[in-house]
Input
Amino acid sequence: MESTLSVRRVWLVGLCFAVLGMVPTFLRVHIETLRILPAVLRSLDASGLPIPDTLAWSSGLVRWISVTGSVALLSRTALLAVVYLLLLAIALRTAFPSFASLLSNRAALLRLAALVVAWLGIELLVVLGSGWASDRSTQGLMLLCSVLCVTSALLWSEDGGAGWFLRGKRISIWAMTRLISGGIACGLTGALVLQFTGYDFGAALYRFMFDFPTVFVPPGGARALADLNPRGWLTFVGISLAIAAAGSFCWASLWTAIVAPAQGYHQRIRALAAALVPLSLVTLLGVWLFYGLIIGRMDYERILLRMAEREQIPFGAAGTDTVLLPLSDGKTRVARIPFQTIVGFPNEPGVTYKVEQYLRARRFQTTLARPLFVHLHDVRSMDWDPVRSLEVDRLCIERAPRLQFVQLMVETLSNCAVTPEAKRYLDWLDARSRPFRQSQRACQTMGDLYARFGEERKAQEWYERGEIPEKMRRNASPAGRIVGRILWNGQPAEGVRVGVIGWENALPFTRNRPGSDRQVLLARPFDWRVVAGVVATDASGRFEFPSLPYGEYVLLLRVEARRLPPVPGVAQVDGLPSVVKVGAPVTDIGTIRVRETARRPRRPGGAI
Output
């Protein structure tokens, strides 16, 4: 390394600090990964869900993390010791014009040896005091490094006031100011750069871009961790290392420009300019990224209410629909569906469009992604539209991966009509999950889904992959149709929406309790996600449900509340069966007759 202060020397010291400064940051990231990744992998298996590529950890990446994590704690501590010794050596070397001046000063050599011995002794005490906990010992070493850098700046600089520190007689105010400033700069190098910048700022940014692992409870009841995905982890590592490298370079170059001996003020000014220019650029870039990216695009500390005010999205219900459900004793129950999602937004096409555009403008990387996706899913659930609900699940899995939406996609595929549109999403899930290792339950789930959709070959492929016993495998299910007709006040009813739901899924809605027919059911928007599909009656009042696997279903009638208010006894329904058994290509349920009792007869309008 050069003995004179130059731009090349300033940047070379900064580059050395940048390379070495990434090592502690990477070790901290890796320690946190080792702490949580095994639980994440176990939870993914325990969920029993097919894991797509955005959530699946490749075997190569897991193997690499495991192999590097198998290095003993003592070896990692030794690596940190070597890194910090190199940082200390670079700091000491920067403060001297040449090694010859150090070697010729016996007192300086003795003090340097004593400092190294003390450094190693305190390091051992820190490690032993932390109980050999990797993260605690790492933080202790980082703090110790900053203190020793300050000490080295005050003890070993030979420019100006060095003679006074080595029992000389000459005192220089400029040297004192420069040495103190150099000590502060090097303290920031150790404390801010190595401890706080790379890992902690990277972790904070990860919270903005991706959710930290959250508790996920699959249908089996086993608690699990989800949402730690490989893309988010790699982004986290890259951001942490980039911040550590940039911060280390800036502060180490500033430390060199302040502390290293110079032959004149002009040389010192050039060195300071060489250090301050990249520091200014990094600072400006950081401010721009913080306000433009974190606050502007990722909505840092922006609540949903503020987002709604900015996008002019109202709160409250936009309307109400009335649903007639058959009870097991032949009576009819009235349900009410308010057009409002669980987050408070109304179910309106304009609001849905604004939410979708808001997510796309932020590339789905925003702290509000989860509630906005919940709103979109509730909208599709209230509309009884499983295909568009599958589209919401796909978008979330691809752009903002969450295991909860994998569960919702599997649930929708298990309940919806087996149409070609729905099968495309099953094929998408198959393509995104097949290249990765899947649990036995996940293989059985995919096999059951393909058997439900009548794909015998693909179902057997997944059964064979999971080594599922023959008695637990399902045969390909044939599909049938439900046809019928609705008369409203004796006239053909056009535009009445007829929904179909599996009998088991309909039990919470149709279970007959005392007084059920005299109460209005108000279910959450999320509860309507199990509706298999919806069709509207034509001008003659006829409807037809295609592509329903053989089984038992319940029919639901839905109209606008302004046509049929949701009050008990508002209508008398005859011919609406409590259970429809589909066991043939065509199942005709005959004519359903609805007669209004609370108001004068009127033809119902189409529902939104």
Summary: The first helix runs from residue 7 to 47.
